[in-house]
Each structure stands twice: as structure tokens, then as C-alpha cells.
Amino acid sequence: MTQPAPRTNHPSIEELRAVAQPPSVVGRRNSEHWAGTLYLRRMSLYFTRMILPTGISANGVTWLMIVVGAIGAAVLMIPTWWAVLACAVLMQVQILIDCSDGEVARWRGTSSPMGVYLDRVGHYVTEAALPIALGVHVDGGLGSVGGWTTLGALTGCLVLLKKSFGDLVFVARLYAGLPKPQESAEVAASRSSGLRSARSALRFFPFFRAFVAIEYSLLTLAAATLDVVLDAAGVTDAGAVLRGWALLSLPLALATAGGFLLMIVTSRRFE
Q: Which residues cross the membrane (predicted)?
């Protein structure tokens, strides 16, 4: 049987889009970030087309995504407004690269479980590190780590727990010999009508998305910018809004993790 010829490393954008961004990928219910749908997927094709000739593997691109996320969180520890802005920009770059690694894999036909694993590692590391980095920032930098850093670390732990609750569904089904669960609203919905109503109401206040890297970095940038404005006007002390955001993050993370666990155990994900 004749093997298909390998795809070129110099495709047109149209050729690349047809293979790397099929409707089954860009239309996924819970797997596509709103920024990807809105604008990053439009940009990622150009980045993918640029890196294909380098020969870097899809997993290599994912490693790059991990590094960019870690750098973004590290930059946030610097107690300046510019550092917060740089972190927000780097989180955008991270998701752009996150779009690109899958595009490289689909174009080359090299999708693998390792790629999925590394992608998960990247998001776990970044989203847990951001609240910790904010705590260090509010404390005044690495040279003055204190109570705010501890608060950020507790928030980061809750973020990790929340993310693990979702992935553990797949682990439990695998151990039980069941296939991957369907990504449908019916399967994910709680059997409790009260929880369904509460989940529907949260569409108007989606605080459970606050700890996704892009959202968290943008909320932190908004708080830092408001700090600058209010401090210049003499309304508040320097850093008061960021301290409030760091303090609010802990109960929000607790509510997010607890609510997500409750939704999972009352859903049809284990059937």
C-alpha cells in the first residue's frame, strides 16, 4: 500500500487551515478558549506556518508554551505595573502557542498522548503559579516574601485541586474500563435542578473562569491599573486594589473548586 507523501513545510494559509483547524477542533464545546475562538486562532496559523520550516516537533512547541507560561508568572513577581502588563501579554502569547502546537501535530500527523500530557502540565503550572506570583508581587518581590505569598500559595493549591477534579474523571473512567466521556451539556449537567439553576445563573457572573491564565492576568492588570489611577488621585494607598484582588482570590478559588467538585459528582460523567 502506497504511503501518502509527507506534507510540505511551506503550506499556504488556506492549506494549513483546512488541515490544522478542522471544525471538530475549533468547535469543541469546552476545549477552546474564548480568546482562541475570537482572535488567537486567526493569528496562530501564521505562527505555525512560520515555525514549520524549523523542524521543531509539536511537543517542542508545547514545551515552548510551558516555558512562556512560567516566565510570565515569574515576571508577575516583580512589584511594578509594567511587570503586570508584561505578564498579561505573555499569557496571550502562551495561548497563541498552545493553539499552534496542535496545529503542528495535525499538519504533520504526529498527535500523541505525550502532547496531551505536556499540554496539561503547561496549564497546571501556569495557572497555579499566577496566584503565587501575585502574592510575591503584593509582598514587594522575592526579597520580602511574607503573608501575601502564603495567601497566594493557598490559592494556587486550590486552583490545582480544581483542575485535578476534572482530569480525575478520565482517570476514574479508565480504571473502570469505560471510554472517554462525551463533551456534551447533558452529560456535564448536574442531576440536581437547583445546581443546574445556579450554574445557569453564573453565566452572568462567571467567576469560575477567573483562574484561567488569560482571565487571571487581565483581572490582575485591571486591578493594578486601577491602583495606579486611584493612587495618583490620592483616593487609596498604593497597591490597595491588588491586595484586595489577592485577598478575594482565595475564597473565589475555594468556591470554584468546591462547586466544580459538586457539579462533577452529581453529573452523568461516570455513567
A: 50-75, 201-224, 244-265
Residues in the chain: 271
Compute the distance between CA of residue 103 and CA of residue 45 in angstroms, rounded to an integer.
8
**CATH architecture, range 32-265:** Up-down Bundle (1.20)
Among 232, 231, 254, 251, which Cα is nearest to 241's? 231
How does DSSP classify residue 78?
A: S
pTM: 0.88
- DSSP state letter for 267: S
Contact 162, 168 (CB under 8 A): no
Distances (CA, A) of 197 to 162, 186, 191, 210, 268: 21, 14, 11, 20, 17
- What are 66-115's pLDDT values in tens digits? 999 999 999 999 999 999 999 999 999 998 999 899 889 998 988 899 99
Domains in the chain: boundaries:
32-265
Residue partners of 31: CB distance under 8 A and separation at least 6: 183
List the grid coordinates of 152.
497566594
**Cβ within 8 Å of residue 70, ≥6 positions away:** 125, 126, 129
Q: Is 193 helix (H, G, I), strand (E, B) or coil?
A: helix
**Sequence-distant contacts of 52-55: CB under 8 A, at least 24 apart:** 52/9, 52/10, 52/11, 52/104, 52/107, 53/9, 53/10, 55/9
Q: How many CB atoms lie within 10 A of CB 263?
A: 21
- The Cβ-side half-sphere exposure at 111, using a 13 Å CA radius, reads 9
pLDDT band at 30 (very low <50, low <70, confident <90, very high): low
